Amino acid sequence: MSRKAWSQLGQQLFFVGPATFFFTLIVGIPFLLGMYYSFTDWNGVAGTVAWVGLDNFKAIFTNGSDYFAAFWFTVKFTVVGVVLTNLFGFVFAYVLTKPLKLRNALRTVFFMPNVIGGLLLGFIWQFIFVKGFSAIGESTGWSFFNLPWLGDEMTAFWGIIIVFVWQTAGYLMVIYIAGMTNVPKDVLEAAEIDGASKLQILRTVIIPLIMPAVTVCLFLAISWSFKMFDLNLSLTKGGPFKSTESVALNIYLEAFQNNRYGLGTAKALLFFVVVALITLIQVRITKSKEVEV
User: Domain 63-288 sits in which CATH superfamily?
Assistant: First the structure.
């Protein structure tokens, strides 16, 4: 090997090596161990581990009604959450790319909820739903604020949606702003000269040119929605009667509350495969719609 090749190898090891090492240690090895434990009956504590093959996966499909109920709730939450968080993020970005005096301040305000941890955010909103809304309802008499926001299946679902969108829309807003600011000004000016309306410019010029940002935002929103755990735990704990239990919370309870670590990792592996397939399809579809100027 020549000196130049050794130099390149050394640079790669110096810059990429530490990140690769820690990624393998923190993500790669636990993932492989999780795959192994999904084929065992380990309870997460015992020193002995017995190989059970596909028994955990058979149990999921034969006695996994709670798991599939949680999966159905997660799918509904993901569809609504992805649509709303991208819609609000896009609208915020579109408005805040205009020459407004408070543009920078509003960008900061909309992004700040993303900085707060999910558990803390959930407990804050739990107080708002239980105490704050009831106080407003008593003082105003509006029935909207007197709803059992975390005590009914339908209102609890929308309560989690509200907090999720409030937390994540600001992050997607930043990505959409970056995409919109990179749209060539001469293209927009040419569309205006040709007599295109604001809506036509948005639909036929801006949206096609920011499709790379749409790809990233959809990927992030789908990933966040499917893996939603902290808000679910802090707001409803899966209640009432497991009606708002997400897949991530179901896996957590199975592994660490029921002490069935093998079954929990089997559920996690199955969940990983489904989410990976959905995100791959989404990225492929949105990538095909990207255009270049």
Answer: MetI-like (1.10.3720.10)
